[in-house]
Amino acid sequence: MKDKYRATGIEMSVATPASDEEIVVWRNAHLATVAGDRDGLGVVEGGAIVVRGDRIAYVGTDANLPALARGAVQVDLEGRWVTPALIDCHTHLVFGGDRAHEFEMRLAGASCEEIALAGGGIASSVNATNKFSEDELVLQDLPRLDALMEERLSTVEIKSGYGLNVEAELKMLRVARGLETLRPVRVVTTYLAAHAIPSSYRGRNGDYIKDVVIPGLERGRREGLIDAVDGFCENIAFSPAEISKVFDKATAIGLPVKLHAEQLSDLGGAKLAASYRALSADHLECLDEEGAQALAMAGTVAVLLPGAFYTLREKQLPPVQALRNAGTPIAIATDCNPGTSPRTSLLLTMNMAATLFGLTVDECVAGATREAARALGLLHETGTLEVGRSADFAIWNIGRPAELV
Ligand SMILES: [Zn+2]
């Protein structure tokens, strides 16, 4: 956390401490620790958390508080619930302009092709994003980050992918890094130049990867702008063979990978991601049972994005039961983007995951905390209430966790 701040409005805060060694005891709470690997939320009734500096030093019952809590600042939570702060592990929230007009066109009956012919789709976001300076993009993107953070997020992943040339892709990543300096949030950046093919490279995917994706990846790595590398594996984007070239380079320079896979068709993207021990495979509506098992074997998280499913009015549900049977970790994210998921609420997304995909309350809460942290490679740092983890927690004035969903 760049800007430490104290939990003042108990109703609305992610709590982080004011100084490095200060000890604060948060008492009289229902804790959903979300610790442990599978079922349940790790609930502790009559719970307390002791925070020293920015770390959790104790999680347990109020009755068993350790000696270090004596004489420390005490906060009575009056029976409120405490969960790990929420984590949005898949967003495209840095972009210029908006695509509300396309939404109107679609409501009036226009097809995707007609919208694309009128200059819409990803191309319109690419044009708008390329038009604005870094500072202008920060001003446009900050309200989206603020809206997400109102729901007590500690961590947000942000992808590039609306630049589609080296300079513009790196500009997006610098904007994402810049947002982190303006708010008390952890931003994880993902390089997604393999998102779409710019018009100047139409039909020449291989050239685009060689001329733009790989050089941008090398430069972004040198400039410290990239935490992970992503691609869009789909008939309308890149093939598994093309994605492999990007993943080979990422792996060679020591960056983890993840993949937009099996959203509209089954190209075997999840299996490809698993073969690179990817952090996550995302979307997955068209995933088959074998793919679910491959993800589980590799420890790759299945990130479900019900917001895009909803906006596109898709019919094919992700194979939630196959993921459960295989033991694949399941995370949930907003997919915040201007076209297919124009929304900035992780709580609403949790609701959609329950109502549209049939996830349980526990799966939704774990999916937006522990499993989202796992999908970002940050489980050692955040996502559960455990001793030694960062003190990223959220306090909720609710009677039971189902109210969050
Ligand atoms: Zn996405």
What features would you describe in this structure?
The chain is built from 14 helices and 15 strands. The strands form three sheets. Strands 1, 2, 3, 4, 5, 6 and 15 form a seven-stranded mixed sheet that branches. It folds into two domains: 77 residues, Urease, subunit C, domain 1, CATH 2.30.40.10; 290 residues, Metal-dependent hydrolases (TIM Barrel, Alpha-Beta Barrel), CATH 3.20.20.140. With 405 residues, the chain is an alpha/beta fold. Bound molecules: zinc ion. The site of zinc ion has 4 residues, from loops. Zinc ion (ZN) binds next to loops.
Keywords:
Urease, subunit C, domain 1, globular, alpha/beta, single chain, four-stranded parallel beta sheet, 405 residues, binds zinc ion, TIM Barrel, disordered N terminus, seven-stranded mixed beta sheet
Overall tally of domains:
2
Q: Say how many strands there are.
A: 15
How many helices? Answer: 14
Fourth CATH level, the homologous superfamily of the largest domain: Metal-dependent hydrolases
CATH architecture assignment of the largest domain: Alpha-Beta Barrel
The unique ligands bound to this protein are: zinc ion
Q: Using the alpha-carbon principal axes, give the shape.
A: globular
Provide the CATH top-level class of the largest domain: Alpha Beta
What profile does the largest beta sheet have? Answer: 7 strands, mixed
CA distance, first residue to last residue: 27 Å
Uncertain segments of ≥5 residues (pLDDT<50)? 1-14
Task: Examine the coordinates and then state which fold CATH places here, giving the name of the CATH topology of the largest domain.
Answer: TIM Barrel
Evaluate the radius of gyration.
Answer: 21 Å
**What's the pLDDT, averaged over the residues?**
93
Structural class: alpha/beta
Q: What portion of the residues fall into strands of 2 or more residues?
A: 15-25%
Order of helices and strands: EEEEEEEHHHHEHEHEHEHEHEHHEHHHE
Helix content: 25-40%
